[in-house]
Design goal:
By secondary structure, the chain is mainly alpha-helical. Helix content is 48%, strand content 1%. The protein has a three-stranded antiparallel β-sheet with strand order 2-1-3.
Length: 1227
């Protein structure tokens, strides 16, 4: 926290553990524990210097026995609360409600004593008396209470409202009310209650503790629910069976002048957040803020997650609708009234109190994001309102403890060290994981900020440098610091504090050990620090490679030398010690684990690192896997990525890099010139690279000239040289005995002749032919080409003529997969000259295509939108000829070419032809509808295309596709041509209906819906994708729902596994639709479907819309309906999980069972759900109202485990203590 004025006694008493008014030795040991004795100098001293402390006073701090209070008075020159002075009106207003409540049951002297003792508020009797007169305070008599009750009951009766009466939070039976009214009210007063004047007059201020309000709707009597003890109600009387100081929840009040935007405390006293007398210091005033009230509202808007709130009714509604369900009301309209008050702020203290109280409630129920608390803390510090937080810190309650844990994280993130000190002095567990979604710890945040001083402070307070949160923050503070920081001082501090230098990564998002993290950052000095801290130099995990592998992979000579000097294994991953990690990594596709350091070095072309490793007798061929992983043959070598490329031997990698010096070094060191772990052999690589010197060197050292081509796209040395066109290399290989007709690779292979033709090298082609090369060698099975086919594919007319001269077969069959005949290849290449040559040479127009991804000649012309060629081919081509893809007609429809479609139809093409392309087969009419071309649709329908045709790959019928395109004209055209609005369902499931599809659109076209109903669509026909039409309509709007009901839809229709219309409507917010369904006779208690189903009430509760919940309860919804078998919940369980405490209260009053059985799979009881999600207030409410003592210990234990597993440690502790307390009572 940053302040312009000096610190008070209160300020410094918090960080160093002193209590105001006591004589004691300054707790310098505690100060040291918080990092105050570190090299940067004493925090206490630095605080003094920052706030103008006279240096002459500092020596007092080393005196063993001093009057601490006197020292601080001398240092700060500020009066304490015991000094008589004027108390500002703002301070009185902050305490007003507390004083008023106390005064109703205490004498003035007792009030003064309690205010001084509990709130640190000191004023003289005369000051109190003047204020009481100004406020018109008076004690409520018993007669006054019952007069008020009688008047309110009579008034509400005249208004037709039912009522119930609470006094001090207890529901008063009607019998007792009548007795007390007759006892205390004179007949004369009673007779006036019926007069118009009295009943029309404004209601008087209710006496303290008295409440007359509306009961739950319906004809039943609501169950009494004890809720005044929960934090957001602020009762001063602890209701739980735990020690009082633990369950005296936060009690935050505000001034009577402005109230509090979310003041649910009624008349309960506030024991904190009253500003100290220092507020009136001449340098600071709560009434002269640094920011405007508009900024306060903006902060508040950020906290509740709404845009900036304006001061109007819309803003009020936005806030109340968002909060309705989370906060309970004690009187009708209380939430609205309190929300309105925030728009009438008159002081910054009031704004701070309101924002702070609301933040405490939300954060203690895990309903705030860390960024929202950050924003509030920034604003309070900016406006000098942080003293309110300091007052809050003194309160020992679970709500405050949870809030302070959040505050500690925010203060650390904002680097507000004084606030961190203040929170730590409260005894907050510094290792508590905090965060609504992404959890973190204070030390983790401090390391991210690189704040050495904060790190020291937190470590000395017990922070764990090795703590990680397995379900959120996947790395420890030490790991995070090493990964992203070069602050060696910070890292050394963490290591000295017990940081584990050998902590292993726990997931693939942070796949580094500390050593490999430092290496990836190129930080040699940090590597030395970690090694000195006993980091294991040869550690390998399923996520991380060894340090030496990592250093070689990043090409860092210095770190490589450091590691080998420290004993790094130069042959990792050889050996059994690495087997487990290596095998697991390989299964997960992590190939780096199978690459040795020398392979990484060769890939990086680093001769120096290779030499270092060879000097240490590293295996010159690297790590070669046995047996070979044949799946690597499927990888395209030219497009492989780093991990896979490094799997090659060092010699393969050196040849790839064309580094003849490194090649010589490896060969001299004994490298096998034919070793092949993955990819081409060194000789094949050299030939592919057109490197004649390396070809000669390798052949001299024993390289095999006829090693077969690898399976996927491989080439023998001669095939590679023939493609590159280097005649010299071809001659050398032929001289060494290269096989001119060696078989091509299985996938995309080429013989030497085919490779020469593909490269366009006519002279090499001639040479190979003269040596016996086969010009008509068969194409490889997958993606292969004959010499003529590859020339046609390249549109190389010169090569085509040469090959035809060499008697190349013009109609050689296409490869069985992804092949092309010469004519098909020429057409695909848009080359009319090649097409003409081939046609003149007798190319077969109707030659069958490949079975996989093949294409006929006619299909190729249609793909090119070549109407002229298509018409030429149609003169002799079979328009319904075989094709492995779509029929030409389907392709023409996809292209939207109506002229092609008409030409094909006129040539006799079957309008209902279906191609063979797997995964995307469809009819032409379906393609036309998808393309939105109504002219083509008309052509096809005229040609007798089936208006109801569909395929397995495209199961949607044309009518459904037209609805998806939102084209009413197409819908009407299809309906007029026989489209079936009610298709026959399949055996396993009903078909997707047109009506169901129309209703399911994000924006429903109601005209299309009308057309479908008019065409006879069955409104009770279920759809495989969308369920019953009425259920879908109910999720949209009332108008559609009414239209389907008018058309005869069954209001209680239900398809197995789908919600009813009412259940679906309750998932939304349209209360009018729900009312319509109820009025039509919808079954309000229809059971939930077994798998993730919800009853109407359960759905409404999960959505959190209170008016809908009230409506359902008023119509008899069963709040104890069974949860769905799988991932369901009762209404109470859902409300508890969501932290919607007012809905929990509503359901409890309606008789909801607290211990109802959860779903058998993925279910939670209400208590377990609240604890697991961090809902402190709900946990409190449920425990207080759980009347079933049997099994309470086990229930609390299960809930405590769930809370702890999700980082809600305070709730977990409370549940365990509650269990022990109850056990003690039983004993």
């Amino acid at each position: 926290m940053r302040r312009s004025e000096p610190y008070s006694v209160r300020d410094l008493a918090l960080p160093i553990g002193l209590q105001q008014g006591k004589k004691s030795t300054p707790n310098l040991a505690l100060a040291a524990n918080f990092g105050l004795n570190q090299p940067r100098g004493s925090m206490l001293t630095s605080n003094f210097s920052r706030h103008q402390c006279p240096t002459s006073v500092l020596p007092h701090l080393s005196i063993c026995a001093v009057d601490t209070l006197s020292i601080f008075r001398e240092v700060f020159k500020r009066p304490t609360m015991s000094d008589t002075r004027t108390i500002t009106d703002a301070e009185w207003e902050v305490q007003k409600k507390i004083i008023e409540r106390l005064y109703q049951n205490q004498t003035l002297g007792e009030v003064m004593s309690l205010m001084e003792q509990d709130h640190g508020f000191i004023a003289k009797k005369a000051q109190y008396t003047r204020k009481f007169k100004q406020w018109n305070f008076s004690k409520n008599s018993t007669s006054d209470k019952w007069k008020f009750v009688a008047r309110e009951l009579e008034k509400r009766k005249r208004d037709g409202k039912e009522s119930e009466t609470y006094i001090n939070g207890k529901l008063i039976p009607n019998k007792k009310i009548k007795k007390e009214i007759s006892r205390y009210l004179l007949p004369s007063y009673y007779s006036t209650l019926g007069t118009v004047d009295i009943l029309q007059a404004p209601s008087p201020q209710p006496p303290t503790g008295v409440e007359v309000c509306t009961p739950r709707g319906g004809e039943w009597e609501p169950r009494f629910v004890d809720y005044l003890h929960i934090p957001c109600i602020n009762s001063s009387i602890p209701q739980f069976t735990l020690p009082e100081e633990q369950w005296n929840f936060h009690e935050i009040e505000t001034t009577a002048q402005t109230g509090f935007a979310f003041d649910f405390s009624g008349d309960a006293p506030a024991r904190c957040l009253s500003p100290s007398v220092e507020v009136a210091d001449e340098n600071q005033s709560p009434l002269t803020s640094h920011t405007s009230n508009e900024e306060a509202r903006s902060i508040f808007a950020s906290i509740i997650g709404d845009p900036y709130l304006s001061n109007d009714e819309d803003a009020t509604y936005a806030v109340t609708s968002r909060l309705d369900g989370f906060l309970p009301e004690r009187q009708d309209g209380e939430l609205v009234r309190n929300v309105k008050k925030i728009f009438d702020l008159s002081s910054m203290v009031d704004a701070s109190l309101q924002l702070l109280r609301y933040t405490v409630f939300l954060s203690s129920n895990d309903l705030l994001f860390s960024s929202q608390i950050d924003k509030l803390l920034k604003w309070m510090i900016k406006t000098d309102q942080s003293f309110l937080i300091e007052r809050l810190i003194k309160i020992k309650t679970p709500s405050v403890e949870i809030f302070l844990s959040h505050l500690l994280l925010s203060a650390t993130r904002l680097q507000e060290i004084d606030m961190v000190l203040a929170v730590l002095a409260h005894g907050i567990d510094v290792n508590t994981p905090i965060g609504r979604v992404q959890k973190s710890t204070a030390l983790y945040e401090a390391t991210r900020k690189r704040d050495v001083h904060l790190v020291r402070l937190l470590l000395n307070a017990g922070a764990n440098p090795n703590a990680s949160i397995t379900f959120s923050q996947m790395e420890s503070p030490l790991q995070a610091s090493v990964r992203s920081d070069n602050n060696h001082e910070l890292i050394q501090i963490l290591l000295d504090a017990g940081g584990n230098a050998n902590v292993a990564p726990i997931d693939s998002w942070t796949p580094h050990t500390l050593l490999t993290s430092a290496i990836s950052n190129g930080d040699a000095a940090l590597v030395r620090i970690l090694l000195e801290s006993k980091a294991e130099v040869n550690m390998m995990t399923k996520y991380s490679i060894t340090a030496l592998q990592a250093a070689a992979s990043v090409n860092d000579v210095e770190i490589v030398q450091i590691l080998v000097d420290a004993g790094a294994d130069v042959d990792a991953p050889f050996g059994n010690r690495y087997e487990t990690a290596r095998v697991v990594a390989a299964k997960n596709g992590k190939f780096k684990h199978q690459v040795s350091p020398i392979q990484f070095a060769a890939y990086n072309d680093n001769i120096e690192i290779v030499q270092i490793l060879l000097d240490l007798e590293a295996n010159v061929d690297g790590y070669i896997q046995y047996p070979r992983d044949e799946s690597l043959d499927d990888v395209d070598e030219e497009n492989d990525y780093f991990d896979v490329a490094c799997l090659k031997t060092p010699l393969q990698l050196a040849v790839s890099n064309k580094n003849i010096i490194l090649v010589r070094l490896l060969l001299l060191s004994g490298a096998d010139p034919n070793a092949q772990n993955y990819g081409d052999t060194p000789l094949q690589i050299a030939a592919r690279n057109d490197d004649i010197a390396l070809v000669r060197l390798l052949l001299r050292n024993g390289a095999h000239v006829n090693t077969a081509a690898r399976k996927n796209g491989g080439r023998t040395a001669l095939q590679a040289a023939a493609y590159t066109g280097n005649g010299g290399v071809v001659q050398i290989l032929l001289h060494e005995g290269a096989n001119v007709n060696a078989l091509p690779a299985y996938r995309h292979g080429r013989t030497a002749m085919q490779a020469a033709a593909q490269g366009g090298h006519t002279e090499i082609l001639r040479t190979l032919r003269e040596l016996g090369g086969d010009v008509n060698a068969k194409a490889s099975p997958r993606g292969g080409r004959t010499c003529l086919q590859v020339a046609a594919e390249n549109s190389d007319t010169e090569m085509i003529r040469l090959l035809l001269k060499f008697r190349a077969e013009v109609n050689a069959p296409a490869a069985s997969e992804m092949g092309r005949t010469a004519l098909q290849a020429a057409i695909q290449g848009y080359d009319s000259a090649s097409v003409d040559i081939l046609l003149k040479s007798g190319a077969d127009i109707n030659a069958p295509p490949s079975l996989l991804e093949g294409m006929s000649a006619l299909y190729g012309a249609v793909c090119n939108n070549d109407l002229t060629l298509a018409r030429q081919l149609l003169e002799t081509a079979d328009p319904n000829g075989a094709t492995s893809q779509h029929p030409p007609l389907v392709k023409a429809a996809q292209r939207g070419n109506s002229a092609l479609v008409r030409s094909l139809i006129e040539a006799g093409t079957d309008a209902n032809a279906l191609g063979q392309k797997k995964g995307n087969s469809q009819f032409a009419l379906q393609a036309a509808v998808e393309g939105g071309n109504i002219e083509i649709i008309r052509i096809l329908l005229e040609a007798q295309a089936d208006a109801n045709a569909s395929t397995h790959d495209v199961p949607s019928k044309p009518l459904v596709l037209a609805i998806g395109e939102n084209r009413r004209d197409m819908v009407r055209l299809l309906l007029a041509n026989g489209a079936n609005v009610n298709p026959t369902p399949s055996v396993k499931s009903p078909a997707t209906t047109a009506l169901g599809h129309a209703l399911a659109r994000f924006v429903v076209n109601e005209d299309i819906v009308e057309d479908l109903i008019a065409a006879g669509a069955d409104v009770n026909r279920q759809s495989s994708d969308y369920g019953l039409p009425l259920s879908t309509a109910a999720s949209k709007n009332r108008r559609l729902t009414q239209r389907l009901l008018d058309a005869g839809a069954n209001v209680n229709g239900q398809w197995p596994g789908r919600p009813t219309a009412l259940q679906q409507a309750c998932n939304g917010l349209n209360i009018d639709t729900i009312q319509l369904l109820l009025d039509t006779g919808a079954d309000i208690n229809a059971p939930a479907s077994a798998d993730m189903g919800r009853t109407a009430l359960q759905a409404a509760v999960q959505r959190g819309h209170v008016p809908i919940i009230n409506l359902l309860l008023q119509h008899g919804a069963d709040c104890n309906a069974l949860a769905a078998e799988s991932y369901g919940g009762t209404a109470l369980q859902f409300a508890a999980m969501e932290g919607r405490i007012s809905i929990v209260l509503l359901l409890l009053r309606a008789g909801a069972e607290i211990n109802a059985a959860p779903s058998t799979r993925g279910g939670r009881t209400a208590l377990e759900g609240a604890a697991e999600h961090g809902r402190l207030d709900v946990v409190s409410l449920l425990l207080k109202n759980d009347a079933d003592e049997d099994g309470i210990d086990a229930r609390c234990q299960r809930a405590a485990k769930l809370a702890a597993a999700n980082g809600h440690l305070v709730i977990s502790r409370i549940l365990k203590q509650y269990k022990r307390k109850e056990s003690g009572q039983k004993d």
